[in-house]
Amino acid sequence: MLRQLRPAVMILALMTLLTGVIYPLVVTAAAQVLFPAQANGSLVTINDTVVGSSLIGQNWNDDPRYFWSRPSAVNYNPLPSSGSNLAPTSATLQEAVNTRATAFTTANSMTTALELVPTDMLFASGSGLDPHISPETARLQVRRVAANRGIEQDILIDLVNSMVEMPQLGLLGQERVNVLLLNLVLDALE
Amino acid sequence: MTTLELLQIVVYFGLLIVCTPLLGAYMAQVFSGERTLLTPILRPLEMGIYRLAGVNADEEQSWWQYALALLIFNIAGFLMVFFLQVFQGSLPLNPAGLPNVEPTLAFNTATSFMTNTNWQSYAGETTMSYLTQMVGLAVQNFVSAATGIAVVIALTRGLARKSAATLGNFWSDMVRSTLYVLLPLSILLALILVSQGVIQNFNAPVIATTLTGESQTLPQGAAASQIAIKQLGTNGGGFFNVNSAHPYENPTPLSNFLQVFAILLIPAALTFTYGKMVGSVRQGWVIFAAMLLLLLAGFSVMLIAEYSPNPVFGTANAMEGKETRFGIMNSILWGAVTTAASNGSVNAMHSSFSPLAGGIAMLNIMLGEVIFGGVGAGLYGMLIFVILTVFIAGLMVGRTPEYLGKKIEAREIKMAIVAILLPSGAILLFTALATVTDAGLSSRANAGAHGFSEILYAFTSAAGNNGSAFAGLNANTPFYNILLGLAMWIGRFGVILPVLAIAGSMVTKKAAPPSPGTFPTDSPLFVGLLIAVILIVGALTFFPALALGPIVEQLLMNAGRAF
Prior knowledge:
heterodimer; A: 190 residues; mainly alpha; 2 domains; three-stranded antiparallel sheet; two-stranded antiparallel ribbon; 8 helices; B: 563 residues; globular
């Protein structure tokens, strides 16, 4: 028993040094040299002000002049991130889905009979910080954004199409639009 | 499902089959003490560690000496993580100024990381300081995984060696796992993840002012280094509360692919290492095949369930709890893999999966975390079922059961049954206890059958050392912190100790050459038998509990009932 105590304590100490101190420091040093922008949070800066991170979604839904993000269980407050964890049989979620569908169709002057609200707009994301929406969801918002900004719808449709991110390496994931980046180029139009 | 998604699945499993013999052969070299590509760099470091620690790496240990070394090392690690948490407020590297962690939460978390469970009753970004995450949690990510690998290597030696007494040296197996396997792979993966946008810094949180004039606090930290080992070591404990659903933890489809691939990489490769070390590569592939078939079966059911319409919402393809960059297929692939492999990280919220998909996730864990399972833990758990299968096959044909030429006797079967019963008992008894006490019931977030599923999932996850959750359950209460912590201890050491005891008795046996009466354990028939035994044991134990949770919820959902 006592014979094993010294190796236990010493190896734990050495492993802590190696995997708890040296390893993260080496990775940090390499990351800061090789990929500084990514390692520091992919921050987006305008005139020396950080306006957000291209990876972290934001709440735009109070301003009709911008494209809106998905519903969020934490209202895009990252401290801490969270999903709703509501069940597939949740009455609370059922009600929320109905409210969201109505709100989205009304805000974007959709004719419910012909146009369905995409499911990414009916359901909250896992992180509460999803930076993306589906291309379809972006296109359905063009009518509203165009009217509120006095821009031709065709220009905005081209803009949305140019901002669609394709599956990575032509294989992984699905088509999506980054809402913050889209709204940034939208502001740049004016 | 689109063709592109189908192609992603094919690429995923194809790559797994290709990498299994490559990494598997390398690990066999490492644990047989042969020279490898990395030996010139790592050997001096390894020898230095032994010298400083006063370890003679060539000193062979009997099964109980091996077990004792393992226990002392793990308890020392537990104490270290516990005290780092309860004093973190007064310790350095805490730019967000987080307070000391409450003791029952600290007990739960220290147990959780020491046992390779990585259940998290807390939100990382608002609870744990950078020091606690790095020096406490990340270290256990490495050494708990290395402990799992060491145990399966000891069991492998127990089966491979003939008429011997010892199983190797715990310290050397543990150190080699870390240095030669986990560390190099982690450095590589961490840097690729940073290139995709996973953060790696020691900055204080950044406060952004958005275009609409709101303020948003962006948490920072050394995430990539921890995430790499969390996946490779099948740990699963996230840097952030929502784990790999967080865009800073898993920013792109490529980072997602690499992370979900890293979960299965080492557990799959270990089956080849095993075959190599017992002298028959086929024995390894048989186990790999049984694991792969079970995984694909569960994954298929989950996919069908998730793409089916939900009458409660009047829509199919429910995106609740899922991220746009991954979509449904990648969320379900991860859900199947993480529960099969005792990883427990998530990229979507399991609680919001359709009931059947959530139920299969639970069943994956209940089957004993043997479908690839945790690094090392999955294979030694599977070998318990192999022994049981050989025994049952022996009973059916009326011959003495043999595995790899060695007789399976009463002692091995008793130990195998202990290893299967202890975690199962913990799941069912603790769940029952929680459902009849206010302390247990008051933590539920959802009503109806789903509330029961939340509790059942929690104890399943803890005893299976998985760590994923139906995360609506408020598990950060003294009741759950202590009971779940106990379930993790039972689920970890209630299996490791019987496994080492089996290794200790098998190693002493002679091996007889195969005779015409020997039941072959490297045939497709054996794969089928093994799968049948696993499913029958799992179903007999857990069907009643599953019927009260996910099964009844699926039926009610199909009838359009909401709660």
